[in-house]
Amino acid sequence: MGGSTKPALAKATGLSVPAVHKMAASLVDVGLLYETGEEISSGHGRKGRVIGLNPTFRTAIGIEITDLSITGIVLDFAGQVHQEQVIGLSSLRPDHVLATVIRMIQDLQEAARELGPIAGVGIGTHGIAEKGRITRFPGNPDWEPLAITSLVQEATGLPCRLDLRIYAATVSELRFGRRYGFPGPIFYFNSGPGNGFATGIIIHDQVLRGANGLQGQFHHLHMDPQGERCYCGSFGCLGTLTSPQAIQQQAQEALTQTGVDSALRGLPTVDFSSILAAAHKHDKLARHLIEDACTWLGIGFSHVINLLNPSLIVIGGAYAEGGEMILHAIQRSAYRYSESHLLQNLQWSLSTLNHNAAATGAATLLFDRYFQ
Ligand SMILES: [Zn+2]
User: What distance in angstroms lies between residue 41's CA and the mean position of ligand 1's atoms?
Assistant: First the structure.
Protein backbone atom coordinates (compact mmCIF):
# COMPACT_ATOMS: atom_id res chain seq x y z
CA MET A 1 0.00 0.00 0.00
CA GLY A 2 2.46 2.67 -1.22
CA GLY A 3 1.70 6.37 -1.48
CA SER A 4 0.65 8.47 -4.43
CA THR A 5 0.75 12.11 -5.55
CA LYS A 6 -2.38 14.29 -5.71
CA PRO A 7 -2.27 14.63 -9.55
CA ALA A 8 -1.92 10.83 -9.81
CA LEU A 9 -4.88 10.37 -7.47
CA ALA A 10 -6.92 12.83 -9.52
CA LYS A 11 -6.13 10.84 -12.66
CA ALA A 12 -6.99 7.51 -11.01
CA THR A 13 -10.27 8.71 -9.49
CA GLY A 14 -11.48 11.06 -12.24
CA LEU A 15 -11.70 13.93 -9.70
CA SER A 16 -10.20 17.37 -10.38
CA VAL A 17 -6.79 18.18 -8.87
CA PRO A 18 -8.28 20.97 -6.65
CA ALA A 19 -10.95 18.52 -5.40
CA VAL A 20 -8.24 15.97 -4.50
CA HIS A 21 -6.22 18.73 -2.77
CA LYS A 22 -9.24 19.68 -0.64
CA MET A 23 -10.12 16.07 0.23
CA ALA A 24 -6.50 15.14 1.02
CA ALA A 25 -6.11 18.21 3.25
CA SER A 26 -9.11 17.23 5.37
CA LEU A 27 -7.83 13.62 5.66
CA VAL A 28 -4.36 14.91 6.64
CA ASP A 29 -6.08 17.09 9.28
CA VAL A 30 -7.75 14.07 10.91
CA GLY A 31 -4.48 12.10 10.74
CA LEU A 32 -5.63 9.44 8.29
CA LEU A 33 -3.22 10.57 5.52
CA TYR A 34 0.22 12.15 5.79
CA GLU A 35 2.76 13.69 3.46
CA THR A 36 5.73 11.38 3.34
CA GLY A 37 8.27 14.08 2.41
CA GLU A 38 9.20 12.14 -0.72
CA GLU A 39 8.75 13.72 -4.15
CA ILE A 40 8.13 11.82 -7.37
CA SER A 41 7.44 12.88 -10.93
CA SER A 42 3.74 13.47 -11.56
CA GLY A 43 4.04 14.13 -15.29
CA HIS A 44 5.12 17.08 -17.48
CA GLY A 45 8.48 17.14 -15.68
CA ARG A 46 6.85 18.37 -12.46
CA LYS A 47 7.37 16.72 -9.13
CA GLY A 48 4.56 16.04 -6.67
CA ARG A 49 4.74 15.31 -2.97
CA VAL A 50 3.74 11.78 -2.03
CA ILE A 51 0.80 11.33 0.32
CA GLY A 52 0.10 7.96 1.91
CA LEU A 53 -1.90 6.30 4.65
CA ASN A 54 -0.57 7.38 8.03
CA PRO A 55 0.83 4.17 9.56
CA THR A 56 0.34 5.41 13.13
CA PHE A 57 -3.30 6.54 12.68
CA ARG A 58 -4.53 3.19 14.02
CA THR A 59 -3.12 -0.31 14.51
CA ALA A 60 -4.94 -3.64 14.68
CA ILE A 61 -4.24 -7.13 15.97
CA GLY A 62 -5.04 -9.94 13.54
CA ILE A 63 -5.52 -13.55 14.64
CA GLU A 64 -5.84 -16.70 12.55
CA ILE A 65 -7.23 -19.85 14.20
CA THR A 66 -6.58 -23.20 12.53
CA ASP A 67 -6.81 -26.70 13.95
CA LEU A 68 -3.01 -26.84 14.32
CA SER A 69 -2.00 -23.38 15.48
CA ILE A 70 -2.89 -19.78 16.27
CA THR A 71 -1.11 -17.03 14.32
CA GLY A 72 -1.18 -13.41 15.51
CA ILE A 73 0.16 -10.21 13.94
CA VAL A 74 0.21 -6.47 14.58
CA LEU A 75 -0.74 -4.43 11.51
CA ASP A 76 -0.25 -0.69 11.08
CA PHE A 77 -2.69 1.52 9.18
CA ALA A 78 -0.53 1.48 6.03
CA GLY A 79 -0.68 -2.33 5.87
CA GLN A 80 2.72 -3.20 7.32
CA VAL A 81 3.03 -6.25 9.60
CA HIS A 82 5.16 -5.39 12.66
CA GLN A 83 5.12 -8.45 14.84
CA GLU A 84 4.13 -12.07 14.43
CA GLN A 85 3.57 -14.98 16.78
CA VAL A 86 2.64 -18.59 16.06
CA ILE A 87 1.61 -20.98 18.83
CA GLY A 88 0.80 -24.66 18.26
CA LEU A 89 -2.45 -25.98 19.75
CA SER A 90 -2.02 -28.91 22.13
CA SER A 91 -5.80 -29.40 22.42
CA LEU A 92 -8.82 -28.51 20.28
CA ARG A 93 -11.10 -27.90 23.27
CA PRO A 94 -12.86 -24.49 23.00
CA ASP A 95 -11.52 -23.31 26.40
CA HIS A 96 -7.93 -24.10 25.36
CA VAL A 97 -8.32 -22.35 22.00
CA LEU A 98 -9.84 -19.30 23.73
CA ALA A 99 -7.12 -19.14 26.40
CA THR A 100 -4.38 -19.37 23.73
CA VAL A 101 -5.99 -16.60 21.65
CA ILE A 102 -6.38 -14.29 24.67
CA ARG A 103 -2.79 -14.89 25.80
CA MET A 104 -1.51 -14.06 22.33
CA ILE A 105 -3.58 -10.85 22.09
CA GLN A 106 -2.29 -9.75 25.49
CA ASP A 107 1.28 -10.40 24.29
CA LEU A 108 0.75 -8.38 21.11
CA GLN A 109 -1.18 -5.54 22.74
CA GLU A 110 1.90 -3.70 23.98
CA ALA A 111 3.66 -3.74 20.60
CA ALA A 112 0.44 -2.53 18.93
CA ARG A 113 -0.05 0.29 21.45
CA GLU A 114 3.49 1.56 20.87
CA LEU A 115 2.65 2.04 17.18
CA GLY A 116 -0.66 3.87 17.66
CA PRO A 117 -4.20 3.62 19.04
CA ILE A 118 -5.53 0.05 18.65
CA ALA A 119 -8.65 -0.24 16.44
CA GLY A 120 -9.38 -3.73 17.77
CA VAL A 121 -8.83 -7.43 17.20
CA GLY A 122 -9.84 -9.20 14.00
CA ILE A 123 -10.11 -13.00 14.07
CA GLY A 124 -10.34 -15.35 11.11
CA THR A 125 -11.20 -18.91 12.06
CA HIS A 126 -11.42 -22.34 10.51
CA GLY A 127 -14.78 -24.06 10.78
CA ILE A 128 -18.03 -22.11 10.97
CA ALA A 129 -18.25 -18.54 12.30
CA GLU A 130 -21.66 -17.09 13.04
CA LYS A 131 -22.53 -13.84 14.83
CA GLY A 132 -19.35 -13.64 16.85
CA ARG A 133 -19.38 -17.35 17.73
CA ILE A 134 -17.36 -20.30 16.43
CA THR A 135 -20.01 -22.97 16.06
CA ARG A 136 -18.11 -25.78 14.33
CA PHE A 137 -14.43 -26.58 14.30
CA PRO A 138 -12.38 -29.08 12.28
CA GLY A 139 -10.81 -31.86 14.29
CA ASN A 140 -13.30 -31.64 17.16
CA PRO A 141 -16.72 -33.17 16.45
CA ASP A 142 -17.76 -32.39 20.07
CA TRP A 143 -16.99 -28.67 19.75
CA GLU A 144 -19.40 -26.52 21.80
CA PRO A 145 -20.24 -23.05 20.36
CA LEU A 146 -17.73 -20.47 21.57
CA ALA A 147 -18.81 -16.80 21.89
CA ILE A 148 -15.28 -15.68 21.14
CA THR A 149 -15.82 -11.97 20.31
CA SER A 150 -17.54 -11.09 23.60
CA LEU A 151 -15.09 -13.21 25.64
CA VAL A 152 -12.03 -11.61 23.96
CA GLN A 153 -13.51 -8.14 24.44
CA GLU A 154 -14.15 -8.88 28.12
CA ALA A 155 -10.59 -10.17 28.67
CA THR A 156 -8.66 -7.54 26.69
CA GLY A 157 -10.92 -4.47 26.59
CA LEU A 158 -10.54 -4.39 22.78
CA PRO A 159 -13.40 -4.52 20.26
CA CYS A 160 -13.34 -7.81 18.38
CA ARG A 161 -14.78 -9.03 15.08
CA LEU A 162 -14.93 -12.59 13.82
CA ASP A 163 -14.94 -13.89 10.26
CA LEU A 164 -14.22 -17.09 8.44
CA ARG A 165 -10.50 -17.59 7.97
CA ILE A 166 -11.03 -17.87 4.21
CA TYR A 167 -12.92 -14.57 4.02
CA ALA A 168 -10.04 -12.81 5.81
CA ALA A 169 -7.43 -14.54 3.61
CA THR A 170 -9.32 -13.60 0.43
CA VAL A 171 -9.50 -9.95 1.56
CA SER A 172 -5.74 -10.13 2.08
CA GLU A 173 -5.22 -11.56 -1.42
CA LEU A 174 -7.36 -8.75 -2.87
CA ARG A 175 -5.60 -5.93 -1.00
CA PHE A 176 -2.01 -7.15 -0.62
CA GLY A 177 -1.62 -9.85 -3.29
CA ARG A 178 -0.38 -9.47 -6.84
CA ARG A 179 -2.47 -6.98 -8.81
CA TYR A 180 -3.84 -8.57 -11.96
CA GLY A 181 -6.41 -6.03 -13.08
CA PHE A 182 -8.96 -8.77 -13.74
CA PRO A 183 -12.63 -7.85 -13.40
CA GLY A 184 -13.14 -11.42 -12.24
CA PRO A 185 -14.36 -13.79 -11.22
CA ILE A 186 -11.16 -14.69 -9.38
CA PHE A 187 -11.25 -17.99 -7.52
CA TYR A 188 -8.89 -18.19 -4.55
CA PHE A 189 -7.98 -21.47 -2.86
CA ASN A 190 -6.26 -21.35 0.52
CA SER A 191 -5.32 -24.43 2.45
CA GLY A 192 -4.50 -24.31 6.14
CA PRO A 193 -1.73 -26.54 7.48
CA GLY A 194 -4.09 -29.10 9.05
CA ASN A 195 -7.56 -30.37 8.35
CA GLY A 196 -9.24 -27.34 6.82
CA PHE A 197 -9.18 -25.53 3.52
CA ALA A 198 -11.62 -23.28 1.78
CA THR A 199 -12.03 -20.91 -1.13
CA GLY A 200 -12.95 -17.30 -1.77
CA ILE A 201 -14.45 -15.62 -4.80
CA ILE A 202 -13.56 -12.07 -5.89
CA ILE A 203 -15.84 -10.31 -8.36
CA HIS A 204 -15.29 -6.67 -9.40
CA ASP A 205 -12.86 -6.06 -6.52
CA GLN A 206 -15.33 -7.36 -3.92
CA VAL A 207 -15.07 -10.56 -1.90
CA LEU A 208 -18.29 -12.52 -2.28
CA ARG A 209 -20.39 -13.12 0.84
CA GLY A 210 -22.94 -15.93 0.98
CA ALA A 211 -26.41 -15.46 2.46
CA ASN A 212 -25.19 -16.66 5.86
CA GLY A 213 -21.59 -15.52 5.37
CA LEU A 214 -20.51 -19.15 5.00
CA GLN A 215 -19.42 -19.19 1.36
CA GLY A 216 -16.48 -21.10 -0.08
CA GLN A 217 -16.79 -24.47 1.69
CA PHE A 218 -14.70 -26.19 -1.01
CA HIS A 219 -13.51 -28.64 1.65
CA HIS A 220 -17.00 -30.15 1.75
CA LEU A 221 -17.54 -30.78 -1.98
CA HIS A 222 -18.88 -34.32 -2.02
CA MET A 223 -16.56 -36.73 -3.84
CA ASP A 224 -16.96 -40.28 -2.54
CA PRO A 225 -20.15 -41.71 -0.95
CA GLN A 226 -18.08 -44.57 0.51
CA GLY A 227 -15.42 -42.20 1.78
CA GLU A 228 -14.25 -41.32 5.27
CA ARG A 229 -16.35 -39.32 7.68
CA CYS A 230 -15.70 -35.58 7.56
CA TYR A 231 -15.89 -33.28 10.60
CA CYS A 232 -18.99 -31.70 8.98
CA GLY A 233 -20.86 -35.00 9.56
CA SER A 234 -20.92 -36.05 5.89
CA PHE A 235 -18.76 -38.66 4.17
CA GLY A 236 -16.14 -38.48 1.42
CA CYS A 237 -15.79 -34.68 1.33
CA LEU A 238 -12.92 -33.34 -0.82
CA GLY A 239 -11.06 -32.32 2.34
CA THR A 240 -11.03 -35.89 3.69
CA LEU A 241 -9.03 -36.88 0.59
CA THR A 242 -6.79 -33.87 0.13
CA SER A 243 -6.28 -31.77 3.28
CA PRO A 244 -2.63 -31.61 4.43
CA GLN A 245 -3.60 -33.64 7.48
CA ALA A 246 -5.29 -36.33 5.32
CA ILE A 247 -2.16 -36.65 3.18
CA GLN A 248 -0.01 -36.88 6.29
CA GLN A 249 -2.22 -39.74 7.55
CA GLN A 250 -2.07 -41.49 4.17
CA ALA A 251 1.75 -41.27 4.31
CA GLN A 252 1.88 -42.66 7.83
CA GLU A 253 -0.42 -45.56 6.90
CA ALA A 254 1.69 -46.43 3.85
CA LEU A 255 4.88 -46.34 5.94
CA THR A 256 3.51 -48.53 8.74
CA GLN A 257 1.36 -50.93 6.70
CA THR A 258 3.56 -51.53 3.65
CA GLY A 259 7.25 -52.04 3.05
CA VAL A 260 7.40 -49.16 0.59
CA ASP A 261 10.85 -47.67 0.15
CA SER A 262 10.66 -43.94 0.84
CA ALA A 263 12.87 -41.13 2.12
CA LEU A 264 10.00 -40.24 4.47
CA ARG A 265 10.78 -43.35 6.51
CA GLY A 266 13.93 -41.84 7.99
CA LEU A 267 12.35 -38.55 9.10
CA PRO A 268 11.58 -37.81 12.79
CA THR A 269 8.21 -36.28 11.80
CA VAL A 270 6.31 -36.67 8.57
CA ASP A 271 4.30 -33.51 7.95
CA PHE A 272 2.85 -31.93 4.83
CA SER A 273 5.96 -29.78 4.22
CA SER A 274 8.28 -32.78 4.36
CA ILE A 275 6.00 -34.73 2.00
CA LEU A 276 6.08 -31.82 -0.46
CA ALA A 277 9.87 -31.61 -0.17
CA ALA A 278 10.22 -35.38 -0.78
CA ALA A 279 7.88 -35.17 -3.80
CA HIS A 280 10.11 -32.43 -5.23
CA LYS A 281 13.02 -34.89 -4.94
CA HIS A 282 10.99 -37.51 -6.84
CA ASP A 283 10.34 -39.76 -3.82
CA LYS A 284 7.91 -42.30 -5.25
CA LEU A 285 5.51 -42.50 -2.27
CA ALA A 286 5.43 -38.71 -1.69
CA ARG A 287 4.94 -38.08 -5.39
CA HIS A 288 2.09 -40.59 -5.57
CA LEU A 289 0.29 -39.07 -2.55
CA ILE A 290 0.63 -35.49 -3.81
CA GLU A 291 -0.41 -36.35 -7.37
CA ASP A 292 -3.41 -38.31 -6.11
CA ALA A 293 -4.51 -35.37 -3.95
CA CYS A 294 -4.00 -32.93 -6.83
CA THR A 295 -6.14 -35.14 -9.09
CA TRP A 296 -9.02 -34.90 -6.58
CA LEU A 297 -8.45 -31.15 -6.16
CA GLY A 298 -8.43 -30.76 -9.96
CA ILE A 299 -11.85 -32.45 -10.12
CA GLY A 300 -13.05 -29.97 -7.48
CA PHE A 301 -11.61 -27.08 -9.53
CA SER A 302 -13.30 -28.39 -12.69
CA HIS A 303 -16.68 -28.05 -10.93
CA VAL A 304 -15.79 -24.45 -10.09
CA ILE A 305 -14.59 -23.72 -13.64
CA ASN A 306 -17.78 -25.16 -15.10
CA LEU A 307 -20.00 -23.24 -12.68
CA LEU A 308 -18.18 -19.93 -12.40
CA ASN A 309 -16.11 -19.44 -15.60
CA PRO A 310 -13.33 -17.71 -13.63
CA SER A 311 -10.67 -15.56 -15.31
CA LEU A 312 -8.06 -16.43 -12.69
CA ILE A 313 -7.45 -19.19 -10.13
CA VAL A 314 -4.99 -18.44 -7.31
CA ILE A 315 -3.49 -21.20 -5.15
CA GLY A 316 -2.46 -20.06 -1.66
CA GLY A 317 -1.73 -21.46 1.80
CA ALA A 318 0.00 -24.76 2.52
CA TYR A 319 -0.41 -26.12 -1.04
CA ALA A 320 1.31 -23.05 -2.51
CA GLU A 321 4.53 -24.24 -0.82
CA GLY A 322 4.62 -26.97 -3.47
CA GLY A 323 5.06 -24.33 -6.21
CA GLU A 324 4.82 -25.17 -9.90
CA MET A 325 4.72 -28.93 -9.18
CA ILE A 326 1.36 -28.49 -7.40
CA LEU A 327 0.04 -26.00 -9.91
CA HIS A 328 0.72 -28.28 -12.89
CA ALA A 329 -0.66 -31.41 -11.20
CA ILE A 330 -3.93 -29.62 -10.33
CA GLN A 331 -4.17 -28.09 -13.80
CA ARG A 332 -3.71 -31.46 -15.55
CA SER A 333 -6.68 -32.89 -13.66
CA ALA A 334 -8.86 -29.76 -13.86
CA TYR A 335 -8.38 -29.53 -17.63
CA ARG A 336 -9.39 -33.16 -18.06
CA TYR A 337 -12.79 -32.58 -16.46
CA SER A 338 -13.66 -29.00 -17.49
CA GLU A 339 -15.67 -27.86 -20.51
CA SER A 340 -12.93 -26.80 -22.93
CA HIS A 341 -14.49 -23.45 -23.91
CA LEU A 342 -14.21 -22.29 -20.32
CA LEU A 343 -10.45 -22.88 -20.31
CA GLN A 344 -9.78 -20.20 -22.94
CA ASN A 345 -8.18 -17.16 -21.26
CA LEU A 346 -8.23 -18.87 -17.85
CA GLN A 347 -5.05 -17.98 -15.93
CA TRP A 348 -3.54 -19.65 -12.87
CA SER A 349 -1.19 -18.30 -10.26
CA LEU A 350 0.49 -19.12 -6.97
CA SER A 351 -0.29 -16.60 -4.26
CA THR A 352 2.59 -14.29 -3.35
CA LEU A 353 1.34 -13.91 0.24
CA ASN A 354 2.87 -15.89 3.06
CA HIS A 355 1.31 -17.90 5.86
CA ASN A 356 -0.01 -14.86 7.77
CA ALA A 357 -2.46 -13.87 4.99
CA ALA A 358 -5.59 -14.68 7.04
CA ALA A 359 -4.36 -12.87 10.18
CA THR A 360 -3.42 -9.81 8.07
CA GLY A 361 -6.81 -9.84 6.32
CA ALA A 362 -8.66 -10.14 9.65
CA ALA A 363 -6.75 -7.11 10.96
CA THR A 364 -7.18 -4.92 7.89
CA LEU A 365 -10.96 -5.39 7.97
CA LEU A 366 -10.97 -3.36 11.20
CA PHE A 367 -9.72 -0.30 9.30
CA ASP A 368 -12.63 -0.29 6.82
CA ARG A 369 -14.88 1.83 9.01
CA TYR A 370 -12.47 4.79 8.71
CA PHE A 371 -13.12 4.90 4.97
CA GLN A 372 -16.92 4.79 5.14
ZN1 LIG B 1 -17.32 -32.19 5.07
Answer: 54
